[in-house]
């Protein structure tokens, strides 16, 4: 097991990198950002200073926490963070113009790729070929073609890879996955998922709402926060899709609503509902998964908590997943699920971006495999591209997509999209 902190480089210093500066200040005990890169020099310079300030602030806060710790162990842990953060604050973070330059920095062991969804392919492949571990914002890639190229490079290099999706990691989602894996639901007959988010027209500024900026809408850029965990929980690939999707009620290029009927390799059928039109109301969770088995059923209600300030006890946004089980005629199955619930008690009820990032870093320091393999975010990309193909052509689509299909690449798009005003 490694004892040194993982040396990290940020690639992409846009808006999301501010949150990651705070996250990595809180991870000073296990990692240190030593380099940043951006095509815009002012952004790179700003993030370099933001990171230095964040480390200095964290050192102060950790010393304060150490002084009021309730046990010797707690005080020692906080003192360790304080010392690491203070040392990081005194270290000059190197600045580079692009990912190529940063990857020549031999101290960098892992990259945090914070570019837009359409700019993930080249930095990921270059990082893998340079032997660097990779954490990338989600979605993983804008097309199956790009996702496959990234996966090939990662697997060939043997580096750790993590595609950001914090919604996979709260206790309830892990419990749902274990329940399906256990087989105690019995044969699965149906599996369905809903994304019930709301984005007004005013949300769509800059690259939001465009194919070239986001790569897709409700099912893709936003939908990953429930579709990706859903595919992980079901643990059986989608093999056929029939879908409707489009820019319903919004002036955007891609879809604000998609609805699909799907068939899984295990014989189950189901539905995917991904919406950015759902006005908030008490009885509708932001994300919902329901799986019906022969012996029992499970229901997951997912909620998203924006939390840039760390008020909830950690850094970055949070996801919570509450999982319940039911059976009309098999009480033994319910007892088994309660036993599984006890097994996941140490997993946070609410999983933050900071927690997700720590899991990634621990795969490096402990040389372990990630909880979720690269196949899951890759399959999410393929499912969404198949939704777009089916909606565009008005026909069922079988998976995997053929490599010569325009929807395997990013060239296939919904042709009935409405272009943005202005």
Gross geometry? globular
CATH class annotation of the largest domain = Alpha Beta
CATH topology of the largest domain: Dihydrodipicolinate Reductase, domain 2
End-to-end separation in angstroms reads 56 Å
* Number of helices, where a helix is a run of at least 4 consecutive DSSP H or I residues: 13
Task: Note the main sheet.
Answer: 9 strands, mixed
Strand order of the largest sheet: 14-13-12-11-7-10-9-8-15
The structural class is alpha/beta
Overall mean confidence score, pLDDT = 92
Strand content: 15-25%
The CATH homologous superfamily of the largest domain: Dihydrodipicolinate Reductase, domain 2
Unreliable spans: 309-313, 417-422
> What is the chain-wise order of helices and strands?
EHEHHEHEHEHEHEHHHEEEEEEHEHHE
* Computed CA radius of gyration, to the nearest angstrom: 22 Å
Residue share in helix: 25-40%
Q: What is the total number of structural domains?
A: 2
State the CATH architecture of the largest domain: 2-Layer Sandwich
Number of separate strands? 15
Task: Give a description of the structure.
The protein is an alpha/beta fold. It has two domains: 6-165, Rossmann fold, CATH 3.40.50.720; 167-398, 2-Layer Sandwich (Dihydrodipicolinate Reductase, domain 2). The chain contains 13 helices and 15 strands. It has helices at 16-26, 41-68, 72-89, 99-102, 121-129, 144-157, 171-182, 211-214, 218-222, 224-234, 331-343, 353-365, 375-393, and strands spanning 6-11, 31-37, 94-96, 110-113, 133-136, 161-163, 188-196, 238-246, 257-264, 269-275, 287-293, 297-305, 318-326, 350-352, 397-398. The strands form two sheets. The chain has a nine-stranded mixed β-sheet with strand order 14-13-12-11-7-10-9-8-15. Strand 5 (133-136), helix 6 and strand 6 (161-163) form a beta-alpha-beta unit. It is globular, with a radius of gyration of 22 Å. The model is unreliable at 309-313 and 417-422 (pLDDT under 50).
